[in-house]
Write a structure and sequence with these properties.
47% helix, 6-stranded mixed β-sheet, 565 residues, 5-stranded mixed β-sheet, alpha/beta
C-alpha cells in the first residue's frame, strides 16, 4: 500500500510518499518541499494573502500530481498554525478542496505535538526511555515528553521562527536588546512547562524540523545532506557557540555560511536563540537530530488507525479491486457464494469470447458485478437486486469513473429477474455500445448465479463447447446438483438469446450424466431458439413442465436453509 502525507506549515509545505510494508513499517519513496512562507505576516489573526494562497495551491497541485504518479491509495493532509490562526483559513481549505481536490484537516497545536512526538520516537528508537522532542516551525514550537508508546506531556507554543523574527528580528544584524527581549519572552511562555519536564526526568532530547536540522548540522560542523546527520548528537555547548556567532552576523554574511540554507538565513538568529533558550531551561547536554516530523507522524497515525485496511491492501494491491471487496464486506456479503458466482461468470466469459468479442476491461466489470450482485441483501431480501444497484452506485468505489460504476451496478441489478430495458433509469443513459455490454455481462452473471442456486458451490468446474447450433456447457459437480441444473435452465435463456444459440447443459457428477437445454423454461418467449433435443447416450431433454416438476422434487429434497436466493 502507498500513501502520501502533506504538511501545510507556516514556513514550508512538505510531502512524503510512503510504501507501507506488511509488518506495518514504512519506506519513504519520494519527498518534496516548497518553502512558500504561508505564515509570513499573518500569524496574529490576520488573513492569508491572495498571492501566498495562489502559490500554495500551485504547490499542492504539483504535490498531488507527484503522489498520483506513484499510484498512492490515499493522500492525507494537515495544516498547522498559519491556516489555524488566519481569519480566512476556512477559505483556504475550501480552495484546496475545490481547486486541487485535497481534503486538508486543520489540527490543533496539541495534536501537532503528539504526531511529531510519535514520528521522532519511531525514528530515533526511543523505546521505553523518556525523551523530550522539540520541533521549531514557522508559526509554533512543539515540546513533548514521552516514550515510544505514550506521550505524557504535549504543548504547542506560539514561538515559531517566522513569528518571532517578525517581532524581534527586524534589525540587521539583530541588536543585543532584541536578543535579550526574545529570550525573556521565550522563558516567560514556556519556562514553567519546561520545569515540569525536568521534574519528571528524561534521558534524551530530540530535535525535529528543518530549522533544528539545519542549525544542528551547522553547530556540529557538518556540511552534509540531512540524511547524513540523521540521529547525530550535537552538544549543547556547540549550539551556544553557533548562537553567539549568528546573532552578531548581518544577513549578507549569513548567506555566505557554507551549509546554511540561504532560504533560512533570515530566520537563523531567532531560530538559534529559541533553540538555545529551550535547551538551557532543560539543562540538556546534547540534542539528537531527527529528520522525521509531522508528515511522518501523519503516516504512523494513519497506520495505527487503519491496520485492517492496510493488511487488506497487501492482499489486494489494486485500489479498484480492494474498493470492491471493502464495499462487499461493509454490506456483509456471502463471500463463498459471491466468489463462486464470479469464478463461474469469468469461466463463461472466457469460453465465449468468440461470441461476445469483449475484452479485459469488460471482464473486470463482470467480475466486480458478480462479486457485488447480492449485497442488496444488506438492506432487504425483497428487491435485493435493486438494492444492490443502489449500494454500488453510492458505495464510494475508488478508481472507477461514473460510467464504470453504473455498469457494475447494472450488472448486479439484472442478475435476478428482469432484463435491461431502455426505460430503466441508469441503463437508458448509457451509450448504445455500453448498453449491449451490460446485456451480455448481466446475462452471464445471471447464469452463473443459477449455477450456485443452493449457495453450496456444488459446481466445481465447467467446460463450454461452441457447437452448431447449440452452446454446450458441461458441468463437473461434487454431489447433488439438481437445484443448480433447474436454475440454469431458467436463467441461461437470456444469454442464449443474445448469442442466438440454445444452451445445453450436461452433468458429470459421480452419478449418471444428464443434459438440459437452457431454453426450455423460456421457450414461449424465445421462439427463435429451437427445441432441438440433445442427442447422445445418457442425455435427455427437460421441457417446461419437466423443469417445474424437477424444481418441486428438488425443493422437497433440499432443506429450506440451503436456498437463500
Amino acid at each position: 500500500m502507498r500513501i502520501a502525507a502533506i504538511d501545510v506549515g507556516s514556513n514550508s509545505v512538505h510531502m512524503i510518499v510512503c510504501r507501507i510494508r506488511p509488518d506495518l513499517s514504512f519506506d519513504v519513496i519520494d519527498r518534496e518541499k516548497d518553502m512558500i512562507r504561508l505564515g509570513a505576516g499573518v500569524l496574529e489573526g490576520r488573513i492569508l494573502p491572495d498571492a501566498a494562497v495562489a502559490t500554495a495551491m500551485q504547490t499542492l497541485s504539483k504535490f498531488r500530481q507527484i503522489a498520483e504518479s506513484h499510484g498512492v491509495d490515499e493522500i492525507i493532509a494537515s495544516a498547522t498554525s498559519a491556516v489555524r490562526e488566519a481569519d480566512n483559513g476556512g477559505d483556504f481549505l475550501t480552495a484546496a478542496r475545490r481547486n486541487v481536490g485535497l481534503q486538508i484537516r486543520v489540527i490543533s497545536g496539541t495534536e501537532e505535538a503528539r504526531l511529531i512526538h510519535l514520528a521522532a520516537a519511531y525514528a530515533v528508537n526511543v523505546g521505553r526511555r523518556a525523551s523530550v522532542v522539540i520541533d521549531i516551525g514557522g508559526g509554533s514550537t512543539e515540546i513533548t515528553l514521552g516514550t515510544s508508546a505514550r506521550v505524557e506531556m504535549a504543548r504547542s507554543f506560539k514561538l515559531g521562527a517566522i513569528r518571532l523574527t517578525e517581532r524581534f528580528g527586524t534589525n540587521d544584524p539583530m541588536t543585543p536588546g532584541d536578543a535579550a527581549r526574545l529570550v525573556r519572552h521565550v522563558r516567560r511562555e514556556c519556562a514553567a512547562y519546561l520545569r515540569q519536564i525536568v521534574g519528571r526526568g528524561y534521558q534524551r532530547v530530540i530535535g525535529a524540523s528543518g530549522t533544528i536540522l539545519s542549525l544542528g548540522a551547522l553547530a556540529a560542523g557538518r556540511r552534509r545532506p540531512v540524511d547524513e546527520v540523521r540521529n547525530l548528537r550535537v552538544a549543547t555547548k556547540d549550539v551556544r557557540r553557533l548562537r553567539d556567532r549568528l546573532v552578531r552576523m548581518p544577513l549578507a554574511a549569513r548567506l555566505k555560511i557554507p551549509g546554511l540554507d540561504p532560504r533560512r538565513a533570515d530566520l537563523a538568529p531567532v531560530g538559534i536563540l529559541l533553540l538555545d533558550t529551550i535547551l538551557d531551561a532543560l539543562a540538556a547536554e546534547d540534542i539528537t537530530l531527527c529528520d522525521f516530523a509531522l508528515r511522518e507522524g501523519l503516516v504512523l497515525d494513519y497506520i495505527h488507525r487503519n491496520r485492517a485496511q492496510i493488511r487488506k491492501a497487501e492482499r489486494y494491491p489494486d485500489v479498484r479491486r480492494r474498493s470492491v471487496i471493502e464495499l462487499a464486506e461493509r454490506c456483509s456479503y456471502a463471500q463463498p457464494h459471491a466468489s463462486q458466482v464470479a469464478r463461474l461468470a469469468l469461466a463463461i466469459f472466457d469460453a465465449t469470447v468468440e461470441l461476445h468479442g469483449l475484452g479485459s476491461r469488460e471482464r473486470e466489470w463482470l467480475e466486480f458485478g458478480a462479486l457485488l450482485h447480492d449485497i442488496g441483501h444488506h438492506i432487504s431480501y425483497e428487491g435485493h437486486h435493486q438494492h444492490s444497484h443502489y449500494l454500488i452506485k453510492h458505495g464510494d468505489l475508488r478508481g472507477f469513473d461514473p460510467e464504470e460504476t453504473e455498469i457494475i451496478a447494472l450488472i448486479a441489478r439484472y442478475h435476478r429477474r428482469g432484463t435491461p430495458k431502455k426505460s430503466h433509469e441508469g441503463f437508458k443513459r448509457l451509450p448504445k455500445k455500453r448498453r449491449e455490454v451490460v446485456r451480455v455481462l448481466a446475462a452471464i452473471v445471471r447464469l452463473a448465479e443459477g449455477l450456485d442456486r443452493s449457495h453450496t458451490q456444488v459446481v466445481t468446474d465447467l467446460k463450454i463447447t461452441l457447437g452448431d447450433p447449440a452452446l454446450a456447457i458441461g458441468l463437473k459437480t461434487r454431489g447433488d446438483a439438481e437445484l443448480e441444473l433447474w436454475a440454469a435452465t431458467r436463467h441461461g435463456a437470456p444469454l442464449g438469446e443474445l448469442f442466438q444459440k440454445p444452451i445445453e447443459f450436461s452433468l458429470t457428477p459421480r452419478g449418471p450424466r444428464r443434459a438440459v437445454p437452457a431454453h426450455a423454461e423460456h421457450a414461449r418467449h424465445s421462439p427463435q431458439l429451437p427445441r432441438t433435443p440433445l442427442r447422445g447416450r445418457g442425455h435427455r431433454r427437460i421441457g417446461q413442465d419437466d423443469a417445474a416438476g424437477a424444481a418441486r422434487q428438488v425443493a422437497q429434497r433440499q432443506r429450506p436453509s440451503r436456498v437463500r436466493h
